[in-house]
Amino acid sequence: NAGVTQTPKFRILKIGQSMTLQCAQDMNHNYMYWYRQDPGMGLKLIYYSVGAGITDKGEVPNGYNVSRSTTEDFPLRLELAAPSQTSVYFCASSYNGGSNQPQHFGDGTRLSIL
Amino acid sequence: AQKVTQAQTEISVVEKEDVTLDCVYETRDTTYYLFWYKQPPSGELVFLIRRNSFDEQNEISGRYSWNFQKSTSSFNFTITASQVVDSAVYFCALSEAGYSTLTFGKGTMLLVSP
């Protein structure tokens, strides 16, 4: 029962470096999401996808890019890491994306930009 | 625009006390869904409950209960006879009909001491 798998769990980047946060789900869910969680601020939506080949911006998309080439994978890319992107990143998925569907979350990636 | 407010930033109780976590929401839709998630110290997000806007019945699951009141736009969560394992950050979230994305509150950190 893997569910939603995020890699890596921890990462330290230098300012200006780039990296890709990986997210994979094995539940055949159509909808996938990326959130960031800052201390005391709850979760904010970065990007989401309603299916392979379709992505859309969330509340805080600047500085990030996503792609969805398969149903299973939804990577998040940081092109030029900035200290403001230090955060915990969560990937989530839901079956059909209906507003009544609970989202299932990965364990998160803790990212520090120094 | 939708909004979720969890006014209690942190609550500390002693084991076996009852505790209520408040959640107030704003939405213009008549059809919407409310969720509670738990984030224990290990960091993962665990889905607890979903409630739709047409079902105002209170729900009880073991020591957990939820009180949904449309008249006050509130969806409060009560833990009866709290235990140390209940220590976590609890998030309330809202999804409007036709939208797959969630709007989260900032969370309430519950500390249960022995």
Report the average pLDDT across residues of chain A. Answer: 93
Number of strands of chain A: 11
The largest chain-to-chain contact, stated as pair and per-chain residue counts, equals: A-B, 27 and 25 residues
List the secondary-structure elements of chain A in sequence, H or E: EEEEEEEEEEE
Largest sheet of chain B: 6 strands, mixed
Into which percentage range does the β-strand content of chain B fall?
A: over 45%
Major β-sheet of chain A, in short? 7 strands, mixed
Give the strand tally of chain B: 12
Gross morphology of chain B is: globular
- Helical stretch tally of chain A: 0
The arrangement of helices and strands of chain B along the chain is: EEEEEEEEEEEE
Span of the ends, CA to CA of chain B: 41 Å
What would the average pLDDT of chain B be, to the nearest integer? 93
Query: Helix count of chain B, per DSSP?
Result: 0
Unreliable stretches of chain B, pLDDT < 50, 5 or more residues? none
Helix vs. strand class of chain A: mainly beta
**Percent helix range of chain A:** under 10%
Residue share in β-strands of chain A: over 45%
Which terms summarize this structure?
heterodimer, A: 114 residues, mainly beta, seven-stranded mixed sheet, four-stranded antiparallel sheet, 11 strands, globular, B: 114 residues, six-stranded mixed sheet, 54% strand
Word description of this protein:
- The complex is a heterodimer of chains A (114) and B (114).
- Chain A is built from no helices and 11 strands.
- Chain A is an all-beta fold and 114 residues long.
- In chain A, a hairpin with a 5-residue loop joins strand 4 and strand 5 (43-51).
- Chain B contains no helices and 12 strands.
- In chain B, strand 7 and strand 8 (64-69) form a beta hairpin.
- The mean pLDDT of chain B is 93.
- Classes of the chains: A mainly beta (114), B mainly beta (114).
- Chain A binds chain B through residues 31, 33, 40-45, 48, 50, 58, 88, 90, 92, 94, 97-108, and chain B through 9, 31-33, 35, 37, 43-45, 47, 50, 52, 91, 95-102, 104-107.
